Amino acid sequence: MAAPRDVFIVCNNVDDMGGLQRWAHHMARLLAARGDRVVLVGVTRGTDRHDHHRDGSYAVEVLHREWRLPVLAWRPETPRHRLDLPARVRDLRRSAAQRRGAARLSELFAAARPGAVVIVAQVWAMEWVRLADTRGLRVVGMSHESYAATRRSSRYRRVKELYADVDRLLLLTAEDADAWARDGMSNADHVPNALHVRPKVHPTLDLPVVACVGRLSYEKGVDLLLEAWERAVAGRPGWRLHVYGAGPQEDELCAAAATAGLADSVEFRGVVDDVEDALVEASVFALPSRAEGFPMSVLEAMAYGLPSVAFDCAPGVRALIEDGRDGLLVPPGDTAAFAAALGRLMDDRDLRRSLGREARASVERFRPETVLARWDRLFDLLHSTLPARDEAVPEEAVPGQAPLGRAGEGALPVPEGAVVSGPALEGDSF
Amino acid sequence: MRPDASVVVIAYNDARRLPRAVGSVLAQSLGGVETVIVDDASTDGTGEVADRLAAAHPGRVRAVHLPSNSGGCGRPRNAGVERSDGRYVMFLDSDDVLDRHACLNLVSAAGETGADLVSGLCERIFLDRPEGARDRIKPWYPWLYRRSAVYGSLRERPDLLYDTLSTNKAYRREFLEENGLRFTERLHYEDLLFSAEAYLASGRTALIPHRVYHWLVRERAVAPSISNRRAELANFADRLEIHRRIDMLFALRGAYELQRVKDAKFVNHDLLLYLRELRDRDPAYRARFLDLAAGYLAELDPRVFERANPMPAIAAFLVREGDHAGALAAAEYDRGKRPELRAPLVERDGRIFWGGLPPADSPGGPLAVRARIPLPGGAGRRVLDVTDFGFHQRPLKEMRPANTVTRLEMRGGVVHMAGHVLNPLGRVPAGAALSATLEFFDRRRPGRKQRAKARIEHRGGRLAWRAAFEPRRRIRPFGFVDPVWDVRLRVRAGAEEMITCPGDGAGSPPLAGVALPVRPRLTRLAGDRLRSYVTEGGHLAFLLEGGLPWGRPARAAVLRAAGTPTGREAWRRVRRLHRSARHLLTSRSTKARVFNRVLSRLPVRAGQVVFECHLGARYADNPKYIYRELRRSGGPFRAVWSYASSPKGFPSDAVLVKRGSWAYYLALARARFWVDNQGFPDGLRKRRETTYIQTWHGSAYKRMGIDQPRLKCGPEAERARLQRMVDRFDCFLVRSEHDVATLVRGLGVRSELLAAGYPRNDPLVGGLDGDPELAAEVAELRRSLGLGDGRRAVLYAPTFRTGPGGRPVRRMDPPIDPAVFARELGDEMVLLVRPHYLCTTRLPPSARAVMRDVGAVPDVTPLLLLADALVTDHSSIMFDYALLDRPIVLHLPDEPTLGAGYFDLERHAPGPITRTEEELVAALAGLDAAGAAHAGRRRAFARRFGEHDRGTAARTVVERYFSGGGRRGGTA
User: Fold this and answer.
1) Of A343, A398, B10, B914, whose CB is crowded by the most CB atoms within 10 A?
2) CATH superfamily of the domain spanning A209-364
3) Is the Cβ pair A187, B58 closer than 8 Å?
4) Global pTM?
5) What ipTM does this complex have?
6) How far apart are CA A184 and CA A188, in angstroms?
């Protein structure tokens, strides 16, 4: 294994109850467990605090106790916008606050040993990292959603601007990395998320239950699942659909299920604390999402050996499920095909077994060790150096890393001074 | 431990740019990269620069000096390979740069895939074009680099042979050593051979879509680099020699399939590059070049002409056959969006051939007499057949025949111009009314046209034109801002129009250097004459020149002022202001805002009805029949019809407005009624006083609205948008309960449903007796299609197919081969081919006797009335035609797509279903028998889907909404 490194993981916040935060803490734990010194940095505090099984093996820092200033930088587009004085003042205050936060980051970075890496998990946090002093470190930017989803949102422009100069832009799937590379981001690469459950019990695949775990919001598509369920359950009495999760569409969906006469076969079971409880009593997993990044719920279901049915809506879904081998994929939005796929699995126990078996084998690709090995290879390449040809080249041992946002290609890199080494992290950084 | 990668930078007399190239290697995000500079015995101090770079970066940069100049890229690259240590080797030329992540991407892909050879995207950057211009950056064969891929051998992806650069790749060192891969040192284009050898030897080749190499191109460079010095014949001879060696290599390995891919690439790419430059070369060069090329082409497997793209294949074939004019015309044909047709065409045996002289079936034909090499039997016919380009049927406005200038001179303040335009296949008939206008326009603002009249007439198979005018009065440049002027000749022939570009050609006098006196509006200092020149594409153009003593310094001063940072900034601001002002005044969102806030507060015009059909595409469908009924009823109303591109074919007694224009929005804002079959622009809030009658355009088999998977999985905003548009309806016409269960539900219609049937179907139910106008229209259509000979008319009207990208397939072919149709059914039937309005069809001239393209007929109802039978797929036309109770055949060759409909088409089919061409021929041959057998099903079908079609739909609509002075509210 590589020598222990200093790794900084910078997120918008580290204590909300979201998938990203869960990923960040899991990653920090994995790295710390093998000896890396990890600092998890949140730009602000989250609104609903959650501890994510924090175990003290890594430090946690927050740059701003709260962020009341505008979330996004001010972009005046017309001459009239430019005259908006209050907006200008707000933006100045925002920049000043950002600089304070970045100074705090610089302090943290200055304490790092050679070979350190900064992982910027979200593009908003990159605004701070960009302002901080990252000399001697390598900066890796991440986007945890599909290219198509970013393309549709305001993040697209920010990803292209803020991540243009990072040493690596990591996506979750190879297909997304290719899409960004085609779009001109030549630093695009991919590392999948690591599996974060270790199943001790497995479902028998005999109970007549289909499970769906996710937020009850439009993009998770539970309405489409109900539509498909109406067809699938017809002629298959006894089968039940367990929907776990809460969200803005909860009431609407309950009402829709009742109107469609599904009240008997559909159960809304609310938020589940341990996903194991939900998965072991199911035989089929359904993912009716309209958009996805890298669906961790499918990864979990596969680890438990459940066959999944999903809309082929994003590269992340295709990266996990190979249609007909370890799950079933149907064209996006085709609820009839979704129903047919569900029906196939509900009718055929052997098919459930074989797909489930393949699924368990398939998620081995995402075992923490495998994923960490990929990270390590990346870190090694980023920090690789030339072998000393003779004794007279000490300064070149750590190649100079110009500050981000410098002039473009063609400029000779700025010669780099002594490598910074500072005191170890303070004890009060939790 | 060795470096991860070595980059071999070769340089010859390039001291200025070498540091930039080396800098791009030093700035790599991969740390372990060494640079080896190989100086090919330069004489301008490049060697010293290399030494200085090496001294400044000890251990990272090394300089190697060749003792004597090698004259190429091969030896320096080989020397670099020998003198470097990296696990992977890459090459960089001193005038180009690497992307910052090139090494990291290539090395990491190699490590991950275990490839011998990894290749990334190369981008050509045209440094002479302004920063941010769209054509500044051109990727090199981007279709090869769409996604990451790994190939076990070249046979898995022979197209790799298109990318013959050696520089955008990383090679595993052991791979180079084991296979003894080195560049050849005596020939140019060593890349081609090296790449072919490397691809062939590679046990695993990986491709990444990342940009790795910036090929910096300076078009106005003093000494073009080797690869751009195509002007030298020796250069081309080298290229051929390299190709011969590659051929040998493939032959040795028995790789015949690869050989053919490479041959096709030679025709599609290499040869074309040279042919397109041939226009500017002197005759001796041209002759020698064509000899060399013909020699090599004669060695190739003749199948290459069928494999290569059609026009390059024609060019290569004609080079081989010695028809130089035809070859050059073909080489230049597929340039740009609207290529110029420079070769004559000929029709023979129902096919169209390129080059004027009909190719012979066998040796000894007219072409073979001229050519030195005998023709292979029939091959020429297949290669030169350009029927599929549709020159015989495309509208003239889509064609651009060559226009050769034969006279251009100044006489006493008057310019005399003359020339002739090709008349391909006699498309402009001798009797057509001809007129022409010369248009001069500023190249940067093509909208600013200055016109001069021209006379045009038929002469000897061509259209001869001449013009004489005073340029001082006709052409008024501004000065300074419009230095370049282009000229076009717009020719009107009958109802059609075409635009031609006058230019150089056989029989042209020297066209350059004629000065037309002009008076710029700004000041005479900007110039006082337009001097003619010939563009690279061979067209006539003019440059504004100064004649006054201080015109030259004045212009220089203006240019200098404009070139300063302040000047550039000011100019940029002016342009931006201009753009934003134009956007503000003409954009759709502005118009929608003004519509909602201002226009819809204007008083409603009593009785104003705005009609629109398929977003203004044509005067047809339900809105047409409502309009006709309204006109017949004689009520006081003011009809406004919207048209999308041309008002041709729309009723002359209505007010016509262009869709999207201010007049259109004003008409909609003040209208009492909107009548439409598809949708008025989104974002317009319909005022309460306006009644929106949505007629829709057909019953549904395919899923509609939110029943479509696309909308189901799409974002919420898209559903909201649909709902917003649909909620404007005040009335929705339905033909049956089926419509209520499908269309109404899928679209989310919440308005009044009028169960009247479709107005367009009234004549199908009630016949033509009460409608002399429509009867005349049908009779005229029958006459113009030449259907009076007693044969039966069969209408083929399928819907569009969805292509791989989810987009409609543009091209629609007849379901039966014309020759087969003529043989089997031609005596009894004529096939009317009607492509969906998103598609076009191409019928060869040989089909003329038995098939007609009726895609241009605006209204389908008269076609239905005169058709004796219908062949369709799952198009909604079957629901309408069923009302006529005439035979219907459903031709469904691609059955799997059918699962997605609202009902089981096979179970409810109104006639026989066919899957293949033979089945369809058989079904049409037995039409009467099958017609009778299916009569019951057909009637049931008509009853089910057209239950409300009683022949009175138009009257019902008019009575419900328009009688009573138009004062009643729609939703009341």
Assistant:
1) B10
2) Glycogen Phosphorylase B; (3.40.50.2000)
3) no
4) 0.83
5) 0.86
6) 9
